[in-house]
Amino acid sequence: MKVAAKLEQIRQQIETACRKSGRKPEEVTVIAVTKYVSAERAKEALEAGITNLGENRDDGLLEKWQMLGDKPAWHFIGTLQTRKVKNIIDKVDYIHSLDRQSLAEEINKRASRQVKCLIQVNVSGEDSKHGLAPVEVIGFIESLRPYQNISIQGLMAMAPLTDDEEILRNCFHKLKDLRDQVQSRQFEFAPCTELSMGMSNDFAIAIEEGATMVRIGTALVGEDD
After folding, report:
1. Which of 8, 89, 91, 145 is the most buried (most CB within 10 A)?
2. Per-chain mean pLDDT for the chain
3. For the chain, which residues score pLDDT lower than 70?
4. Strand, coil or helix: 115
5. How far apart are CA 40 and CA 119, in angstroms?
């Protein structure tokens, strides 16, 4: 199926989720995760009307950048090694995986402009997941105050891979509560308006729980053979 047809299906699901939760579809940004597809498929997504692309490896982002440049807004959504910051820092609009001081220092040092970052939070407590424990988040954000090249735009999390709706809702609800706590502090350097949560299998539930960014890969752009 063409990306345009898949996008229409996803938009319908977003509208339904927004209607159920009293929200507007315009409040939700769709990020097409292109890590498993070619640059040509990413270009098709762009031509279908998607304006935000997500990559989780620096080499994947750089490969697609060669073809697409800055036409889309680029989101780095994977674990970012400190030594690879220099490879992508002038090409990304958002980094969704800020989770440690050394990474913040490197982003701040390498950036020539203010970079929009999201704090990755391990809301499920799984050993396999990256991110800060929820209790660490506010203290970590406070420690970022001196870094003038970093703006904390929100929080990001990955829910467990499960069909149990209660578990998913609990994880998403925890992240929204935490985001609200950060907002209540009114940090100038951390407006924290965004909630990046929800993927191909659970984005509708995430939207019902407050997601402002959903990261959709296989359900939108598929996978290359």
Report:
1. 89
2. 96
3. 225
4. strand
5. 31
